[in-house]
């Protein structure tokens, strides 16, 4: 008796429209490295872990900066405390009167193995370059969406820094409170790439907005509604 085939296996058909060669090449690829510094020094003949290690970087962050194991630390402390032993008392002479309580325990320090100095990575300049670029940037990467920027500029043009009037505007479709408008305006003015052109157009680039005596922005730093 012939064994019946499964329906799923019986209905399988070869797809002639698929490019098997292209799919196999795609499966063998490890993906594109987005960082240009790493991509430039990446060796396709080596595994990713060795490539990253040769550049002076950490491939596995959990191994490079492990989470402290409290249980293991307690065991090490216990072992160190157990190594503290009193020294062997020498036989006292007949005329020597020494108090046995004065003899204190001396800890036995185990000789620690000397760690060998690690050789610098062959491509250490990659890690140095990435660290330098990270230290050079001190700005704000965050950007507000364009519709929100247009809304803030429109409200400031119309009401200045009167946040209570902004909340009562008929275009306040989201029904935001005056505190939310104040937070939006302050965040907008902390992003130089977005607020500098607007301040230049208004002539406020060199003005001190924290000056409460100036009537133009006396409510800029207010903490109450009045």
Automatic annotation (TrEMBL):
Cell compartment(s), UniProt: Nucleus, Nucleolus
Assigned keywords, A-Z: Nucleus
A GO biological-process term: ribosomal large subunit biogenesis
GO cellular component: nucleolus
Coiled-coil stretches: none
Pfam families registered for this protein in UniProt: Nop16 (PF09420)
Protein family: Belongs to the NOP16 family.
Protein name listed in UniProt: Nucleolar protein 16
Naturally occurring in which organism (per UniProt): Anopheles aquasalis
Lineage: Eukaryota, Metazoa, Ecdysozoa, Arthropoda, Hexapoda
